[in-house]
Design a protein that fits this description.
single chain, 7-stranded mixed beta sheet, binds coenzyme A, 36% strand, alpha+beta, 5 helices
Length: 154
């Protein structure tokens, strides 16, 4: 068993670009939404092992971006705990909808998000083709479209 602490990044802390880029390889995209977001970081015994970015879309809806767990700690339920943490924080801040996007090729992520109660809500067609300079692949499938999922919080 591990004791996981999830807390907002301190003003003096630097974000982990390794983690951020493992979830979204576009540094440019990250630079656009980071100033409007809060990064929540997960620690085990003071070692940073995961994070997610909480982006307020409007007063009603927030979006989870860049959820990532250090490779050495994946598959132990930490991604699930990060999602549950984001859901709780969104509820206590009064949001009614929490959304998350992933690619058509991200089979494991689609499984994880739906298991946590997120439902398919839209497709941004050709998102990864139009917004990324290099073709991206996951599970041997090209990432072409962004699949949006949302969870109603009431
Ligand atoms: C996606 C990610 C955050 C999941 O974190 P994690 O700690 O490995 O996930 P968990 O251990 O909590 O997994 C929860 C469930 O999802 C499943 N799952 C998670 N990632 C999976 C994958 N890539 N393939 C298959 N199943 C996966 C687990 O088997 C588990 O299933 P269970 O509840 O039935 O046992 C992590 O794999 C990661 O950081 N990936 C790289 C960055 C990334 O792709 N971020 C998402 C961008 S949209």
């Amino acid at each position: 068993m591990f004791s996981l602490v999830i807390k907002p990044i301190g003003e003096e802390d630097t974000p982990s670009y390794d983690l951020l880029l493992s979830a979204d390889p576009s540094e440019l995209a990250i630079q656009v939404y980071l100033p409007y977001s809060t990064i929540y970081q997960a620690y085990i015994e003071e070692r940073l092992i995961g994070q997610y970015v909480f982006f307020p879309v409007d007063n009603h809806e927030a979006e989870i971006k860049n959820i990532a767990v250090d490779e050495a700690y994946q598959g132990q339920g930490i991604g699930k705990l990060l999602l549950q943490d984001a859901i709780q924080r969104a509820i206590s801040s009064g949001y009614k909808i929490l959304s998350i996007g992933t690619s058509n090729a991200s089979i494991g992520q689609l499984y994880l998000y739906q298991k946590q109660g997120f439902e398919l809500s839209g497709i941004k067609m050709n998102f990864f083709i139009d917004n990324y300079s290099e073709p991206l692949y996951e599970n041997g499938i090209q990432c072409k479209h962004m699949i949006m999922l949302t969870k109603e919080l009431y």
